[in-house]
Amino acid sequence: MSSFVDLRSDTVTRPTPAMRKAMAEAEVGDDGYGEDPTVNELEATFAERVGMEAALFVPSGTMANQVALRVLAPAGTAVLAGRRAHLIAYENGAGARNSQAQLTPLDDEDGRLDPAAVVRARAGSAHHLPSVGLLAVENTHMASGGRVVLPEAMAALLAAAGDLPLYVDGARIFNAEISTGIPVARLVSGATAMMACLSKGLGAPVGSVLAGSGEFIDRARVERHRLGGSMRQAGVVAAAGLVGLRTMVERLADDHARARRLAEAVAERWPGCGLVPDAVATNCVVFEHPDTDGLLEHLRSGGVLGGTIALGVMRLMTHHDVDDAGLERAIATLSNAP
Ligand SMILES: Cc1ncc(COP(=O)(O)O)c(C=O)c1O
Predict the structure, then answer these.
(1) d(C-alpha 177, C-alpha 179), whole Å
(2) What's the gap in Å between 128 CA and the centre of ligand 1?
(3) From the CA of 33, how far away is ligand 1's center (Å)?
(4) Which ligand 1 atom is nearest residue 138's CA?
(5) 171 CB contacts (<8 Å, ≥6 apart)?
(6) Mind listing the domains of the chain with CATH numbers?
(7) Residue identifier of the C-alpha nearest atom 4 of ligand 1
(8) pLDDT at residue 86 above 80?
């Protein structure tokens, strides 16, 4: 796939030379005994960076979400999240399978959840509806084109949630930080727990990190084990994550600028596709197209790979492995699409 401009996802990035070096040189131990110094360093660095007490390295963003559900949402309770949130739409029903969660979709137009909908859902148990165990917020919100959930919106959701735990799926929360200049610690302030992925825009080959209170992380460690996600000499991959965290955050601004240019080209070619380029503030371009198969084939013939996230919905994502030359190729191919 390396000769293609690969816009299918920001997960396609390959580790940088600095990551490979750090991986080769990583000090390791058995993380099952808490003895991997590089994993411990990653967890401590991440917790401090996001303003939480403790953190846990997990193999994937999906596992971070699943562990959080198992710790925070009692079996059989409703888990409120956007109807297009990864937790609801893109984990193969894992919340139901692993946590007996009643995944309860809320409207997430423009990536926003309505606090009034949260209040209504919480009141439901007095009216024959399931009691609510958890509210999950995705920031950035992928399916709406990487929209950022700002602190004011979070504050309103926290107020609506009351004593309900609030979890942030922050797979791309560092994109939110770079786009707004608001530190992650402020973006997640008040949340019970959060996670971020190292394997997306930050370019690491593997891994996500979950963060919360010390007690939350103790319980999360047990649930990670139950799901088969405990690792041994995981410092080899944690080392790449540390490089990502320390050196790959600032550069996300380049991905955002390229995504904006891509969005402008899309909106110019298909003015009715529902895409507002000015609203593309991070690295994700989502738009409607009546013939996504045909468009994907056209892109492929021009050396460009794209993807879909629903019937008739295209997604193009910028990342570290797409440079200006690649972007120009993508724009030219999009612009001459039939
Ligand atoms: C918002 C969001 N959350 C979670 C995940 C899951 O991450 P992973 O692919 O590492 O399981 C993704 C993956 O794309 C995502 O977009």
Answers:
(1) 6
(2) 33
(3) 28
(4) 1
(5) 61, 86, 138, 140, 142, 195, 196, 197, 200, 208
(6) 5-12+251-335 (3.90.1150.10), 17-247 (3.40.640.10)
(7) 61
(8) yes
The Cα–Cα gap between 156 and 165 comes to 14
Q: With 70 as the cut, is the pLDDT of residue 2 above it?
A: no
pTM equals 0.97
Exposure on the CB side of residue 317, measured as CA atoms within 13 A = 23
Mean pLDDT score, 181-202: 98
pLDDT in tens, 7-22: 999 999 999 999 999 9
Whether 208 lines ligand 1, by a CB cut-off of 6 Å, is yes
Q: Closest Cα to residue 119, out of 137, 107, 132?
A: 132
Ligand 1 contacts CB of residue 333 (under 6 A): no
Q: Is a pLDDT exceeding 80 seen at residue 139?
A: yes
Instruction: Give 122-138 pLDDT, tens digit per residue.
Output: 999 999 999 999 999 99
Structure tokens at 171: 């797979």
Q: Which one, of 266, 252, 267, 270, lies nearest residue 318 by Cα?
A: 252
- What does the alpha-carbon distance between residue 236 and residue 59 come to, in Å, rounded to a whole number? 12
Specify the pLDDT at position 127: 95
Cα distance between residue 42 and residue 70, in whole Å: 23
Ligand 1 in reach of 169 Cβ (< 6 A): yes
Local confidence band at 115 (pLDDT 50, 70, 90 cut-offs): very high
Distance from the alpha carbon of residue 142 to the mean position of ligand 1, in angstroms = 9
Report the nearest-CA residue for atom 9 of ligand 1. 61
C-beta separation of 282 from 256 below 8 A: yes
Predicted pLDDT at 338? 87
CB 60 within 8 A of CB 199: yes
User: Could you identify the residue written with the tokens 């139950």?
Assistant: 226
How many angstroms is it from 276 CA to the middle of ligand 1?
Answer: 24
